[in-house]
Design goal:
Helix content: over 70%
Largest sheet: none
Distance between the termini: 73 Å
Strand content: under 5%
Order of helices and strands: HHH
Radius of gyration: 18 Å
Shape: elongated
Length: 110
C-alpha cells in the first residue's frame, strides 16, 4: 500500500519562484506596516528603528524583484502578475503614506 502525499505546501514543494514571490509580498507589506506604525509615534529628531526597517525592506525588494523576474516562466506571464501587483500596490501605498506622514500629518502637529 502506497502512502498518500498530503497537499501541505512547504518550501521544498513550492520551488524558488513561489518562495521569492511570497518573500517579495511579505517584505512589501513589512514596509507598509512600518510606515503605518509611524502614525502612532511622535516625530523624532533622528531616524528611528522604523525608518531603518523601511529602508532595509526597500533594499531587499531591489534584490527580490529581479530575482522573481529571473526565476519566472515567461511563457505563462499571467501567473506572475498577482505577486507583482500586490508588491507594487503595497509599495505605492507605503511611499504615499510616508509622504503624507512627513509632509502633512507631522507638519500639522506641533
Amino acid at each position: 500500500m502506497a502512502l498518500k502525499q498530503t497537499a501541505t505546501p512547504d518550501l521544498q514543494n513550492l520551488g524558488p519562484h513561489r518562495c521569492v514571490g511570497r518573500a517579495m509580498i511579505l517584505v512589501a507589506l513589512l514596509a507598509l506596516v512600518t510606515v503605518i506604525s509611524g502614525y502612532f509615534q511622535k516625530p523624532q529628531p533622528d531616524e528611528g528603528t522604523g525608518a531603518h526597517l523601511f529602508q532595509l525592506s526597500v533594499v531587499a525588494l531591489m534584490i527580490l524583484i529581479p530575482l522573481f523576474a529571473a526565476t519566472a516562466n515567461w511563457a505563462q506571464p499571467r501567473k506572475h502578475i498577482a505577486p507583482l501587483a500586490i508588491t507594487g500596490g503595497a509599495l505605492i501605498l507605503a511611499f504615499g503614506a510616508l509622504y503624507y506622514l512627513e509632509h502633512v500629518y507631522w507638519a500639522a502637529r506641533p
